[in-house]
Design brief:
Layout: E1 3-6, E2 15-20, H1 23-35, E3 39-46, E4 55-69, E5 76-90, E6 101-104, H2 113-129, H3 144-154, H4 159-167, H5 171-191
Parallel strand pairs: 1-3
Antiparallel strand pairs: 2-5, 3-4, 4-5, 5-6
Helix pairs in contact: 2-3, 2-5, 3-5, 4-5
């Protein structure tokens, strides 16, 4: 699958606006549009997203292109959406752009629905404490996996914490980590 390394990971369900100007990524977009294929968005563990040579995390997000605008061969505005997680199995040479051999990594069904519901409510409460709209994310109306990714995308956490959430094996462990991260944010704001 073609790969697009970025400094901030993408979650399933999250929109991704990209300005594409490097020749290798213009070729990636052309490949995806021509072949109606998805691409991988993967976080950068070391290095820069410009110029190549970066080191990448092994868990990322499969991304589908929704819209491309701009002149062919020129700077493009690409809008994509995350459609699921993947685990990298190998990184072939970047020719002409990054590639990843990957397998999809969906979440299993939550093992403990009561605990999952408690954590979803705790996440919602912490987001409200941090200034989010009370009705913005209603835990009663959502699947736990969808909920936690939407809540994480709205959370004031950094790229490494987002990557840790993406790497959690299931929604329950992701919710537990997100509650801890949000508790830290709430405590930090109380100290300021």
């Amino acid at each position: 699958m073609p790969a697009f390394p970025l400094e901030t990971p993408l979650f399933p369900g999250q929109l991704l606006p990209l300005q594409v100007f490097e020749p290798r990524y213009l070729q990636l977009v052309d490949h995806c549009v021509t072949n109606a294929s998805d691409f991988a968005v993967v976080g950068i563990s070391r290095g820069s997203e410009v110029g190549g040579g970066e080191q990448r995390f092994d868990v990322g997000c499969v991304t589908r292109i929704l819209q491309v605008s701009g002149p062919p061969g020129g700077r493009l505005l690409v809008v994509g959406v995350g459609v699921g997680r993947f685990r990298a199995e190998a990184w072939p040479p970047d020719d002409p752009h990054p590639w990843v051999m990957a397998r999809h990594w969906p979440d299993p069904d939550p093992a403990d629905p009561d605990r999952t519901g408690e954590l979803m409510q705790a996440v919602s409460n912490r987001l409200v404490e941090l200034g989010d709209e009370p009705a913005a994310i209603n835990p009663a109306l959502q699947d736990p996996t969808v909920f936690v990714y939407e809540a994480a995308a709205r959370s004031p956490i950094g790229p490494l914490d987002r990557q840790k959430l993406l790497e959690c094996p299931d929604a329950l462990s992701r919710l537990e980590l997100l509650v801890d991260l949000l508790n830290g944010q709430v405590e930090m704001r109380r100290l300021l």
